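Cross-check.
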Amino acid sequence: MKSKCPSWLGSLLTVAWVSTGCGDTPEGVQARVDLAPPSLTEAQVTLQHLDRLSGLDPQAGREAVRKLRPKLDELNRLVARVEVAPEHFVEFYDPTSGGMLIAEHGPVEDGGFLRESDVTGHSVVDLYRRLTGGATPPEALVLAEARRVIAESYRMPVEAEATRGLSSLEAVRPPGADLPSDTSSWTGSDGQLWRDTVCFRGGDRADCLPNRTGNGGSSQNSKTSFAELAPYRGNVTMRRWYDNGLREIWPTFAGEHWRFFQSSGTYAPCPDWQACGTREYYLRNHTWDVIDGDGDGYHFATGFRWNCVWIGCDSRP
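Predicted model, tokenized:
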């Protein structure tokens, strides 16, 4: 097909080409980037532009993501971040409507830091203290935990009642300091290794998705869910949905390995006049998906539990 942007017009029309979509330059893409998006919906548009910028100028793309990080932290409702090793983080987010999200990410070579015993049956405040050797937790994390406890009232739930929200854990470090080096241990030839060592093998549903490109994801009505993501070529955007609402988005890069644990909100499975001594998770929709993956490469895995009881749902499938 003949080009609609003939090259003989010369460099004087470069700006016009960018504005009409006939071609991209790093400067042109940067001019369209909003580093202070007012919502997660607008932030997704920003990340699409930054994905394109990274393809044209990887260094400029990374620098723009560094500048965007503080706004993403705000939109994602990040309340605490702990650096457990160089460039390796554990993250917590505000549980505005119950539930919990813990995110861990760092260089692939580090492996995973958190164990099931660190998460099962513990509050995020206690986990923060253990990760930091007893440091005083940020007030925002304490208040977030208090709101989660209040939201999870000791009452038998109505069938249609929904507990919206989550809590999450993230490392305490200057914004943007968590971008990895360019070194990547996962490669496109490691699909079978991903299947053998990372993909979930139990639970009620497990999706093993090595060697992906383009968009992909998994969705399930569940009590708890688990996800792992490792880009090995380019950069992609990870999204978390809960109860059919978009909750967080994260830009991820080759060389990183991300691990997530999410639980629904909880309730007491007995009338409000009776002391149960136990809790139960709501059955809510959990969705993990990856976007902005055209031309990129990544390994992905998700696991879901719903035929389980309370903290018995917390173990990795």
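The first strand starts at residue 78 and ends at 85. Residues 209 and 300 are 5 Å apart (CA to CA). Passed to J.P. for a second look.
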